[in-house]
Amino acid sequence: MPVTAVSTDPEAFTMTLEAEFAAPVERLWSVFTDPRQLERFWGPPGWPATFTAFDFAVGAHANYVMTGPQGERAGGRWEFVEIDAPRSFSVLDSFADEHGAPIEAMPSMRMVLSFEPTDAGAKLVSTSYFTSAEALEQVVAMGVVEGSTLAMNQLDRVLEGLRAYAQGTGTRTEILDDQHVRITRLIEGPRELVWRAHTEPELMTQWLLGPDGWRMSVCDFTPEAGASYRYAWEPVGDAEGEPFGFDGEILVVVPQRRLTNTEHMTGTDYPSTLNDLTLEEEDGVTLITTLIEYPDAATRDMVLSTGMTDGMEASYARLERVLIPA
User: What is the pTM for the complete model shown?
Assistant: First the structure.
């Protein structure tokens, strides 16, 4: 993981994050000064950021909104104070309302981002200066240490490019914490087609099947926030296993980019999970990222032990084989 240290100093009113990357300073600088690249990692998993304004000049501003998996929104605003390309820049960092204006009742801070060359690439040092120990404590209590760490640990795939990051690795499962698992799979094909494959029942029934020998017997799905859905599968011929299915509610839809939903195993009292699917396209390939939130570590481990990752890999391989043009 790129993040090597996160520390707070209540006496100096500071929080410092350090991370190292196998990329030159100029490349690291470029992702922090391009809003389209910033959007790919600035929010922690499940809370992607959208920059609605970004004027990279002293005295100018940037505004962004992070959207949670159930549609929650949290805004931020930067005022650029100093720029020393490609070594550092600093901003006045504030929480923002729905209009992009600073929220006066919330703490603001001065954030300094410094970029240093290393033998292996570059080092990032992000230091936030608060106005008081109470302000620092308030922000830390909101989870900023954990959120910042998870966000910065997403930066490798932006710096490397999607092919270098994920090509040939198949379906990868990463345990982020007791409740969260991230699953990634690179698809050789455009995002528009991958999105259709996840949202159009006539396509979903061709690939979303798990191991060979099963068929999708029910696919009641409409990609609209607030809609209910239901899937079901059953073995065919000599295939072994008992029919099963899932149901839930669709929470967030951003066409061709994001789909979040609850997921419950039909006919059981098992707790629901929260599934957050995002799509990124680069150089003709699409990275599928699914963040799954479980109610606890025990449920997480139970689900992973079923061979879920192997079943997903079989389906994704079928998606490429059946739906992606040769």
Answer: 0.88
